[in-house]
Amino acid sequence: MINKFDQKSLLNIAMWNIEGLISSKINDSHFSQVISNFHILGLVETWLEDVNAYTNLPGFDLIVAKIRKKNKKARRNSGGLSINAKTSVSKGISEFATKHSDILWTKLEHKFFNLPKDIYVAFVYISPESAAQSADDIQSMYTQLLEGIVKYSKLGDILIQGDFNAYTNTMPDFIVNDEKSHSSNDDVFYKFDNSLPRNNLDSKRVNNSGKHLLNMCKESGLRILNGRTTCDLFGRPTCITYNGCSLVDYSIVSNELLSSVGFFKVHEFTALSNHCPILDDLPGKYIWSDEAIELYKTNIQSKNIKDKFNNFIQKDFGEVNKMVGEFNSILIETANMSTKFIKRGKPKRDKSNKTRKKPWFSESCEDLRISVKNYEKLVNKFPFKAEYRKSFYTFRSHFRRRCKYEEKQYKEKICNDLDSCVESNPKVFWKLINKLDQSSTCKINESLPYNSFKEHFEKLTLEHRGRNESFSRKYHKEL
């Protein structure tokens, strides 16, 4: 098992099947609070119709996005991916063109992030077997993904996150007894697979997508992080629905990167999606500039550090671990005096981003919201308890319906009031208009360009060109 955990970390990379990137989610304070913990965020199943419909998330820059063509028989769009990065790190990320609409590749520049190698990150969405047109579609998806892995693994390390809709149970993602089945004399360049067991609370039988995923890991030397790290020792489920829970969202890394990952974590379940965000954390680094190296040489020869080394030499530790620990602490103290350590700071809460209560949000809505939150906590604690899951989804359904009803009633009342006082009471009419304007979340401050304004009215007056010419001259003079 991997027992490496470092609180000081450089980069948080997360993936979330958001199940529809709608405005109500983007403006939700809880959504903003969750994503504020991430530096790079891949969103899958955005369900958007147009690439231009993607907007920057609060505090993030959009790196690249893709949509999936809508099925003629479908009521809404499906699929869709986007990669978003905090403004502070977006300059160190490069995008790559990919043929498939459900795979996005990007590169983390090693110089910008102070990493040993470039890291090539892929975000993936594979449809469930019931929704896929044929088994060949799933196989071709894994084939294209494997081609990218082979290509980019020659240039750096690989990290893949995605909703694979794959059940893998605890089946090995490595070649079992690899050392026994291959003689070292056969190929001097052959690397043997290490046996690294993993846990999985989802005991479902391995499906077709799961077989492809495990075979891809064996062929490429990648390893699944779920159920193998300090923060996810048991393989926590990533998707919780009314009927049950399953582990279908995976984080997979190259073997060389395995020891560098600080931890892998399945984030808490929320009412925003049936899926939990998954998070990889890469450890921090000291920035060793020429000035920092010279300063380190000076500091290690200072009286304070020399005294500590003298005490270290004279001290009888009794245990090797204590001796190594104290020696490392002296070196770390000297390094902290000499240079800067990039670490993951605790994200500051943006108080201005607090969601204002809607004017139609009644007491009944608030009561249902509290019930949803309470059952959300219980589902997080006991994901396999059917009673809590069913209660959560029942209350969430009631809450959404109640909100729609209250909003509809509020708008109908406003419209009726506007109709009744438009002529009889203009003051009340304009008060209502201002009230609607202040409560609106859509604020457009863009001014209309002069040329567009001119061309629009010239088209409207083409039939009356004689009058239009005098109007145009007068208009230019006024401006």
Automatic annotation (TrEMBL):
Classification via Gene3D superfamilies: Endonuclease/exonuclease/phosphatase
Domain Endonuclease/exonuclease/phosphatase as annotated: residue spans: 119-278
InterPro entries attached to this UniProt entry: Endo/exonu/phosph_ase_sf (IPR036691), Endo/exonuclease/phosphatase (IPR005135)
MF term (GO), any: catalytic activity
Pfam families the record matches: Exo_endo_phos_2
Transmembrane segments: none
Descriptive protein name: Endonuclease/exonuclease/phosphatase domain-containing protein
